[in-house]
Amino acid sequence: MNKYKNNLLSHASKLDALIDGCGEVTKYATAIVEENSQESTIAILRKISDLAKSSDYLIEVKEMASTLKKSLVEYHGYLKVLEICNRDKSEEDKRTLPELLDELDELIGLKSVKEKVNDLLVYQKVQKMRRGQNLNTTKSTLHLAFTGNPGTGKTTVARIVGRIYRQIGLLSKGHFIEVSRTDLIAGYQGQTALKVKKVIEKAKGGVLFIDEAYSITENDHSDSYGKECLTELTKALEDYRDDLVVIVAGYTEPMNNFFSSNPGLKSRFNTFIEFEDYTSEELEKILIMMCRKNDYELSEAAKLKLKKLLEEKVSDKNENFANGRMVRNIYDDLVMNHARRVVSIDNPSYEILSLIIDEDFVGF
């Protein structure tokens, strides 16, 4: 903080000296750092703008005015970052373990996933209690592999698992960081390891979620970069196993290839959970829940159309079936079609504004 404050005051004083400003610019800068004065911020920016436009001053003055502006931006940027960090601390997840387990249970479908996650949590909780009584415990890893098609809730479940792990004392922070290939692999040799180390350092104490993890090794042209990434990642999986959970996720078959690409990688994961596709009934429940959360209802005729549409989608699905993402797209289209229909109605009632009817199923 002192660095940004001192730079602002120093550059303001130097500009005052160059233009013989009688301390005016310094006065504004002092008001900014001591009172967070918006008026002084505006005043100092106007002064800088006037100096930049004027032909009465030497280039040295204009350069110092530019430097002062940069210092002002850095100072306010620092304050904003500080505000965001403090806000994050104050909004830390305070939910209890029963509340988090309820959140997991309330997710539509995912029966086998819920059973496996609950078994995993029960096991880890008992192992922790056994360690407290100096009983022998298996030194198993917390790392998980989620496989299945997109839109099946892998990210949502990963977030909940991280928070639950914190509640039962397995993680010191329980925060959640999601990364992809671009966050881990650098553009040239030797830098990928450093990039992975930075991500790991940031994730320690919480959950590192790597979506489409197989993409790390699927690019033949940059295969050496992928190997470098996996080498560093595999090492971190072992070194920080006591206070880091890494969850890798992706399509089932590419994930099998991903694990076979590094001999030591699969051994670092002892829990593999397959996320099955949603049924048409589950997808229908998801869409109706989306509607209700946003103050929309479906008419009976609309529900019949929805049921038929989802049955057709499920019947015709392929390996890239989008599950919940598809439902989100259907919901967005329905809301837009509803808006197009209702906008021309004079003084629409509450029911008209909230009811999606069969006529809104256009273009599906």
Automatic annotation (TrEMBL):
Keywords: ATP-binding, Nucleotide-binding. PANTHER family: AAA-TYPE ATPASE FAMILY PROTEIN / ANKYRIN REPEAT FAMILY PROTEIN (PTHR43392), AAA-TYPE ATPASE FAMILY PROTEIN _ ANKYRIN REPEAT FAMILY PROTEIN (PTHR43392:SF2). Coiled coil: none annotated. It comes from Andreesenia angusta. This is Stage V sporulation protein K. It comes from the Bacteria. Residues 140-279 form the AAA+ ATPase domain. The keyword ATP-binding applies. GO terms for molecular function: ATP binding; ATP hydrolysis activity. Belongs to the CbxX/CfxQ family.
